[in-house]
Amino acid sequence: MAFFESMLTLMLVALIALQPSRRLGIPYPTMLAIAGVLVAMLPWAPAISIDPALALALFIAPALFDAAYDLPPRTLKQNWIPLISLAGIAVVLTTAAVAWVGVAYAGLPVAAAIALGAIVAPPDAAAATAMLGRFNLPRRTFTVLKGESLLNDAVALLIFGAAVAAASGAISAVELVPRLALAAPGGILLGILLGYVYMRIGPRLAGTLGGSLFEFVATFGVWVIAERLHLSAVLTMVAYAMVIAREMPERQSARNRLHSYSIWEATIFMLNVLAFLLMGMQARTTVLQLYQHDLSSAIVFAGLVFLTVVLVRMAWLLFSNRLLHYLHAAGIFTAPPLRLASCSALWSCKV
What's this model's pTM, rounded to 2 decimal places? Predict the structure, then answer.
């Protein structure tokens, strides 16, 4: 009962925090994270803990499904070079830079520093989606940023998993390398396969309560299956959502589509609210684990990590866009580079 009461209290806090967010134009993920920090500072605040694997499945899987559902595969094909640049190379460079700061300033072990870099390198899919809607960006820039927010988690989670495995010694390098090599293509193939499996069952249940329940069971089940098979759950979910987005709408009536969309919109918003509130509340646990003389060093280190992430991404964005400009001018790359006239909005999405 205490956990249920805590969840109700958090939802009430979210309801209050969302009002100034709407009026002041502040992105709601930022406002909710701040609200979580403020709640955590209260002496009677509940101590809520959640298993990391459960948190990924509960909060990341539906957010990825929702974002990937609105992104057609042809868009990824048309913008594959900017997507690789941002979702792949930028994540690797940011991870490496943060890892260097962790080793040089905080004296972290190399594996732990790499894991930290992988955690902070990718922008969050839910936060990016919320931020992008606030700016009048060119359509192609909007599409690339949204596609990046889907794919960068896959790269970051692979790096994070490898770093954690190396630090714990749970798996040898001989076993780790082929597993990582198969994680991405295997996840894509699994997502496509499970998407077509869903298409054999989902239309038969469309418009029923059981059909709505099956949508959630299938979505979370896809993530769990990918995790059990040691494949990229992120890429599995993206491929699964794209297959359904391409095949399902024409097999549903307009009434059933509206019903399904409204349920998903409300559910994902509620999960995002809880995710960012819980994220902010973890500050109390982190601070209490530090000695007083370590707190100032931790704050400085957090500031250095933040600046590193922002500066590395800004530098790589400018460099890669200039490189794409030359490739486009030479006729090597036919698609034009991203328009950076509104780069301040683009960078704020990264932050």
Answer: 0.74
